[in-house]
Amino acid sequence: MIDLQNDSLDALVRQYADRDLPPVANWHPETIRESDIRIDSAGRWHYRGSEIERARMVALFSTILRLDGDDYFLVTPQEKLRVDVEDVPFVVQLMEVTGSGADQRLSFTDNTGNRFTAGSENRLWVEHDANESKPYCIVRENLAALLARPVYYQLAELIVDVNTLSGVYSDSVFFPLE
Question: What is the pTM of this model?
C-alpha cells in the first residue's frame, strides 16, 4: 500500500526523475486495492481528503497511472491501486504554437509536467453538453487532459475552416472542433 507520509518516496522520486516512463502497459499484477487517492476535475491530486502538495510526488504518480476500461489505477509490477478521477487526470496549462496552417504544431504541457504534441497519436477533440464545450487531448496511451480555459481560448484563435468543418491543424492532422 502506498504511504504518502513515508520519506522513502523522495528516494523513489529521485530514482525515476528525468527517465523514460515506466512500462505500466506491460505490468499485469493480480493484486488490486483501493488507494484513497482522488484526482479532482481541476487535475489536483488528493489523498484521504487532503490535497497532495508535493508536486514531484504527483509527477511520479502520474507516470504509473493507467486507464483500464473505465477505471484508473496506479500500477506497479506487484499491485494496482484504484484512483478516483472526477473527469480526466490531467489539465493542460500551456500551449506552444510553432508553424502555421497545415504545418502548424500544437505542443502542450500539463499540470504534472507531461509535454506532448497534438497529432495522430495524441488526438484533440471537444465534448459538448447542454452547458459547455470542453476540449481534451490525449497525453499518452488512453490518458486524456482537459485544456484549461486560457489554453482553450488560445486554441480558439487558431481555428480555421476546412471543407465546411471548423478546427485546427497540428502535426499534419486536422482536428474538427465542432
Answer: 0.86
